[in-house]
Amino acid sequence: MSKMNKDTKITRTKDSRHDRELRRHMLDLLSGGGAHASFEEVVSGIPFKQRGTKPAGFLHSAWMLLEHMRIAQWDILEFSRNPKHVSPDWPAGYWPQTEAPRSPAAWDKSVQQFRRDLRAVQELVERSKTDLFARIPWGDGQTILREALLIADHNAYHLGQWVDLRRGLGVWPK
């Protein structure tokens, strides 16, 4: 390991190799996969009648997890880019009112909104003019990097729940 003396300065520019690598790693993390199942893997192939089913020992249905992930991701994204955003009440505002979607169209709409907001987060991270380390002016110390990591972490946690839920329903691919 090299030692740095007090006169050594590390400069970080938005065009640096490290910045590009950090953004690439963040995009990979947000996309899912790697060490866990991706959103596309867990959301696909669940029969409509089972989207509102809670297997024995489970607190949430697939619909409840989908809506919770969508709402939380949307809230974090909007906080990150909109100084006038007001978050839903915790915890009730982050969960759906029902265990099952009203229709296949409601499920599809939620999936599409989740994908749209995830893409918006990825675009925010990808944009070289976005300073990942700058504090969000209307926050209390949050940065875009922290918020993107929060989304990736929250999504990964619930994607793991999806895998267990789908196994409990008997609809996880072998």
Give a written overview of the molecule.
This protein has 174 residues and is an all-alpha fold. It has a single domain, classed as Up-down Bundle (Four Helix Bundle (Hemerythrin (Met), subunit A)). It has five helices and no strands. It has helices spanning 17-31, 39-43, 62-81, 104-126, 144-169. The longest helix has 26 residues, at 144-169.
Topology overview:
Blueprint: H1 17-31, H2 39-43, H3 62-81, H4 104-126, H5 144-169
Helix pairs in contact: 1-4, 1-5, 3-4, 3-5
Name a few traits of the molecule.
single chain, about 170 residues, about 0% strand, mainly alpha, 5 helices, about 50% helix, Four Helix Bundle (Hemerythrin (Met), subunit A), globular
Task: Quickly describe the structure.
With 174 residues, the protein is mainly alpha-helical. 51% of the residues lie in helices and 0% in strands.
Question: How big is the Rg?
Answer: 19 Å
Please tell me the overall pLDDT: 91
Counting structural domains, the number is 1
| Uncertain residue ranges | 1-5, 7-12
The percent range for strand residues is under 5%
Please identify the top-level CATH class: Mainly Alpha
Looking at CATH, the homologous superfamily is dinb family like domain
Enter the CATH topology name: Four Helix Bundle (Hemerythrin (Met), subunit A)
Number of discrete helical segments: 5
Return the CATH architecture. Up-down Bundle
